Amino acid sequence: MKYVQPIRDKEVIEDIKLKLLRKEDPRDYFLFVIGINVGFRISDILPLRVRDLKKPLIYITEKKTRKQKAYEMNHTVRRELLRLIGDRPDEEFLIKSREGINKPLGRSMTYKIMRAITEEYGLEGIGNHTLRKTYGYHFYKETKDIATLQKIFNHSDPNVTLRYIGITQDTINLSTRRFRL
């Protein structure tokens, strides 16, 4: 199993968002933008419905841990997504499969979407956790608040969180690049 990486370059993130926004079907855009802005696991994003986005807080029960979580999305991001959903019914899944009438997208399809999105950028180690790790990486880079990020991710130790988001590897890479005898 390959180690999944965050997308570290903000310019690449913005380019991906613009490219996805220009597509006819906003499904992939929703997947990407929600993933990098809430830090949920893909298994917690896929069941979200239009009504969940309309509330000020997104309430979920994490599939993996069974812990309940309330998350307040950035107001600007939430407003943009609400504009894009328009008058879609409250019961409709935010990220719908093209199969069936109202089915959520499956994990295997999200992986294919992530691979297709990132292949042209030559990104390595991309998978379903890339969105969550991208959120964590940039949250930490901006705030340096590992304690809050640890709580958001429900990790038991700050070192686990740092390793998970790739900060530990960044530090190792920087040190080894500079090392010389």
Topology:
Layout: H1 10-22, H2 27-38, H3 42-45, H4 50-54, E1 58-61, E2 68-71, H5 75-85, H6 107-119, H7 130-143, H8 146-153, H9 158-164, H10 167-178
Antiparallel strand pairs: 1-2
Helix pairs in contact: 2-7, 8-9
Task: Describe this structure as you would to a colleague.
The chain is mainly alpha-helical and 181 residues long. It has helices at residues 10-22, 27-38, 42-45, 50-54, 75-85, 107-119, 130-143, 146-153, 158-164, 167-178, and strands at residues 58-61, 68-71. The protein has a two-stranded antiparallel sheet with strand order 1-2. Strand 1 (58-61) and strand 2 form a beta hairpin. It is globular and about 65 Å long. The termini are far apart.
Q: Can you tell me the overall shape?
A: globular
The Cα radius of gyration reads 17 Å
Quaternary organisation: single chain
* Poorly predicted sequence stretches spanning 5 or more consecutive residues: none
Could you estimate the helical fraction of the residues in percent? 40-55%
